[in-house]
Amino acid sequence: MKKFEEKTLNRKTIFEGRIINLYLDEVSLPNGKTSMREIIKHPGAVAVIAITEEDKILLVEQYRKALERSLVEIPAGKLEKGEDPRESAKRELKEETGYTCESLEQVTSFYTSPGFANELVHIYHAKGLKKEKELHLDEDEFVSVMEVTYEEALNLIKEQKIYDAKTIYAIQYWQLLKQQ
Amino acid sequence: MKKFEEKTLNRKTIFEGRIINLYLDEVSLPNGKTSMREIIKHPGAVAVIAITEEDKILLVEQYRKALERSLVEIPAGKLEKGEDPRESAKRELKEETGYTCESLEQVTSFYTSPGFANELVHIYHAKGLKKEKELHLDEDEFVSVMEVTYEEALNLIKEQKIYDAKTIYAIQYWQLLKQQ
């Protein structure tokens, strides 16, 4: 997997933040030339495909400052340091939707933006959903929960309210489940 | 779409690079409190699902410095300033694989990491593929082209050589095409 390896000649730390770090790497290319690479380090994230007994998917609407608008997404959150992704997925599902689940099946994992960032998202399918009473949101978290049918989800994609990789993947996964 | 809007109180420019910019925004939350948001601005990207007459998908292996390893991905590249995404997709397909196409159908677009970045990827399905003679790679670009069957693609996912959002989405899209 080291094909075309770019060796680090020098790394400059530009920013170390609460969520992301930014580094500027000087690298030597396979042809011996040098180039610069702008690199974001991110702790990784989890996301949950949760479909209720009424065949509705749980979605959350929240504001995304990077886009200056809100998006409708599957429940998700970044990994806390040292946290097991499965535990993180259970926690985010409960915090953001008020639902618990009996089991979580791993569906896939993917890097979201390998061109500049190392964010890896683990996607789980939650089974045996059960609605608890209260939501447990972080102090700075403002989300509204939705339960939508497959057709409603397709409309949300058409309206570009669902507009992110993990959620569009999740709806496509749901389509495949329906065809089984 | 301005639900739960976070108003910008102050923006600090941390870094302006060749590909990404990093800003640190102080925002006012819906409850009146303030918080900080780490924001990456990215020009956006295109990616191409290209399946040959022999029912093989075109993939490229390249080194990803952010991951310190190579990945196998569908042909893709970032948008040049002011460039039409469709033209960009044609250009990247030709540059990275040596193939041209008769037409491009838009499949979907998605934000890759809405939690911290505004990178939007446009995904096209290339039709009427034709192999040209030469590859036209950028000077700093080292890729190897692969043509793989659906079953080989599934194995590449299992081996985590295919491991990024757009390519895993593309293989799932191919699965749906096969079921039509």
UniProtKB/TrEMBL annotation, chains A, B:
Residues 40-170 form the Nudix hydrolase domain. It holds the Pfam family NUDIX. The keyword Amino-acid biosynthesis does not apply. GO terms for molecular function: hydrolase activity. The keyword Transit peptide does not apply. Its cofactor is Mg(2+). Keywords: Hydrolase. InterPro entries: NDP_pyrophosphatase, Nudix_hydrolase, NUDIX_hydrolase-like_dom_sf, NUDIX_hydrolase_dom. Homodimer. This is NUDIX hydrolase.
